[in-house]
Amino acid sequence: MVDNNEFPTTGFVRLAQILAPAGPIPVSKSTWWQGVKENRFPQPQKLGPRTTVWKVEEIRALFEGHADG
User: Fold this and answer.
1) Taking the CA atoms of the chain, what radius of gyration do you get in angstroms?
2) Does 3 fall in a domain?
3) How many domains does the chain have?
4) What is the pTM of this model?
5) Beta partners for 13?
6) Cα–Cα separations (whole angstroms), residue 63 to 13, 37, 52
7) What's phi and psi for 47, nearest 5 deg?
8) Closest Cα partner for 42 from 28, 29, 60?
9) What is the pLDDT of residue 55?
């Protein structure tokens, strides 16, 4: 698991920063996108046609165990 000090505290992160081995969430891309579709994981925001990001606060809530829902 990623040390909380290594993960940003505010802003946005891309998928490669979220999923293991670089990120704190140990699931595959296909599992992640299925979870997004089923609202088990936070919804992304589009910054451009090829740029998808997530709010750091929502990802932190997910891996720190206090996500709403």
Assistant:
1) 11
2) no
3) 1
4) 0.84
5) 54
6) 14, 18, 19
7) -95, -20
8) 60
9) 98
Nearest alpha carbon to residue 42 among 59, 29, 23:
59
A 10 A CB-CB count for 24 gives: 19
What tokens does 8 get? 């940003």
pLDDT at 48 > cutoff 60: yes
Q: CB-based burial of residue 53 (10 Å sphere; 0-12 exposed, 13-18 middle, 19+ buried)?
A: middle
Cα 13 to Cα 56: distance, rounded to the nearest angstrom: 6
- Token look-up 């720190």 returns 64
Mean pLDDT, range 14-29, rounded to an integer: 96
Q: Could you list the residue range(s) of the whole structural domain that residue 37 is in? A: 12-63
